[in-house]
Design goal:
Structural class: alpha/beta
Bound molecules: adenosine-5'-diphosphate, magnesium ion
CATH superfamily: P-loop containing nucleotide triphosphate hydrolases
Keywords: ATP-binding, Nucleotide-binding
Protein name: FeS assembly ATPase SufC
CATH architecture: 3-Layer(aba) Sandwich
Oligomer: single chain
Number of domains: 1
GO molecular function: ATP binding; ATP hydrolysis activity
Number of helices: 8
Shape: globular
Strand content: 25-35%
Length: about 250
């Protein structure tokens, strides 16, 4: 069993406090959904989990299986089994996608970066076909000319290949066509069934056609203001964030 615990995390970027005490957990076998209006701090949380040095932890902790990873460099967090897919990934033209996949597997296995691994590449090609990702991505530079949908599928491919303890995906359903959402949703359920803990952000109830969340957190202005179930996602889709916040405020006042 693996567990990622975000404990009272306060984070600053660009000289401004963005996360103001965020706590949440995700464990093996869970699919945890994070919602919240634009600018509420979801991507900041994910970047901080990944270890992006632009995001300064002011207080609180990030624990993997009870051990703090908050001061580890990104590659060590990754080697320990925390995989983070980004909302807007960057392209790395000088590294072929196939080489990056092989390098990632080698890092996880504690091998040399360049150790050949033809078996893994064959597996990656099989997964790509299932995700509807064209085989030519492997010979292209990472992210070079990738469409929005190809980026998202490529990140899920990495997770399926690596089977990390914890998979964090920032809006994996955005920019995808309906087949893409179905393929990514299926992959997310497969990851959790095989023992990964999945934390993802989304804005849309349509993902519920394909995933069954264990738990839903809602963020606003750098804080988690609510924990609930998939009913929360449906209600937010129906009425919008601001009306939803008014509704729960009324309920709290009763
Ligand atoms: N590197 C950064 N420098 C300065 N401000 C940032 C940085 N990253 C995020 N922010 C700010 O933090 C707030 C939360 O952004 P973000 O985490 O991207 O929200 P979300 O993903 O929920 O839409 C926004 O006001 C955004 O402008
Ligand atoms: Mg975001």
């Amino acid at each position: 069993m693996a567990k990622l615990e975000i404990r009272n995390l306060r984070v600053a970027a660009g000289g401004k406090e963005i996360l103001k005490g965020v706590s949440l957990t995700v464990s093996s076998g869970e699919v945890v959904v994070l919602m919240g209006p634009n600018g509420s701090g979801k991507s900041t949380l994910f970047q901080t989990i990944a270890g992006n040095p632009k995001y300064e932890v002011l207080d609180g902790d990030i624990l993997l299986d009870g051990e703090s990873i908050k001061d580890l460099p990104p590659e060590d967090r990754f080697a320990r089994g925390v995989f983070v897919g980004f909302q807007s990934p960057v392209a790395v033209p000088e590294v072929r996608f196939a080489f990056m996949l092989q390098a990632m597997l080698n890092i996880r296995a504690g091998k040399k970066l360049t150790d050949p691994n033809p078996q893994a590449l064959a597996q990656a090609q099989k997964i790509a076909a299932e995700l509807g990702l064209k085989p030519d991505v492997f010979s292209r530079g990472v992210g070079v000319g990738f469409s929005g949908g190809e980026f998202k599928r490529a990140e899920v491919l990495q997770a399926l290949l690596l089977r990390p303890k914890i998979v964090v995906l920032d809006e994996p359903d955005s920019g995808l066509d309906i087949d893409g959402i179905a393929a990514v949703g299926k992959a997310i359920m497969e990851l959790s069934a095989s023992g990964s803990g999945v934390l993802l952000s989304t804005h849309y109830a349509r993902v519920l056609r394909f995933i069954k969340p264990t738990r839903v957190y809602v963020m606003a202005e750098g804080r988690v203001i609510l924990e609930g179930d998939e009913g929360v996602i449906k209600r937010i889709e129906e009425v919008g964030y601001q009306n939803y916040f008014r509704e729960i405020q009324k309920e709290l006042a009763l």
